[in-house]
Specification:
This protein has 104 residues and is α+β, with helices and mostly antiparallel strands. The protein is 30% helix and 31% strand. A hairpin with a 4-residue loop joins strand 3 and strand 4. The chain is elongated, with a radius of gyration of 19 Å. InterPro entries: YolD. This is YolD-like protein.
């Protein structure tokens, strides 16, 4: 027999219950921002500068609102004043949210 899990109960749930279940699920998967030491930051910056100079793609782990996302792309521009960089997808990313960066 195949169990449908929560699907069979969603018809009987109020929208408030669904919202609470989503909130609970979001809290379960929350990950605090990792703290990096100065050496790790310097190594990531060196790697990013090398990738920018050569045009090689990078794999970036980026912390955003409790989750770590992996992004792959080519660094197009640095903004040292604002502490951010732009990838070839056109989005700007802040250095303080980068968890890891590696050449691919």
């Amino acid at each position: 027999m195949h169990d449908r899990g929560m699907k069979k109960w969603t018809q009987m749930m109020l929208p408030e219950h669904r919202a609470l279940l989503k909130e609970l699920d979001r809290k379960k998967s929350y990950a605090p921002r990792p703290d990096l030491d100065q050496q790790e930051l310097e190594e990531m910056m060196r790697c990013a500068q090398e990738a920018y100079a050569t045009g090689n793609p990078v794999m970036i782990s980026y912390w955003t609102t409790g989750h770590v996302e992996n992004i792959t792309g080519t660094i197009q521009k640095f903004d040292q004043q604002r502490g951010q960089f732009r990838l070839d997808d056109g989005a700007w990313y802040k250095w303080k949210s980068v968890v890891s960066l590696a050449l691919t």
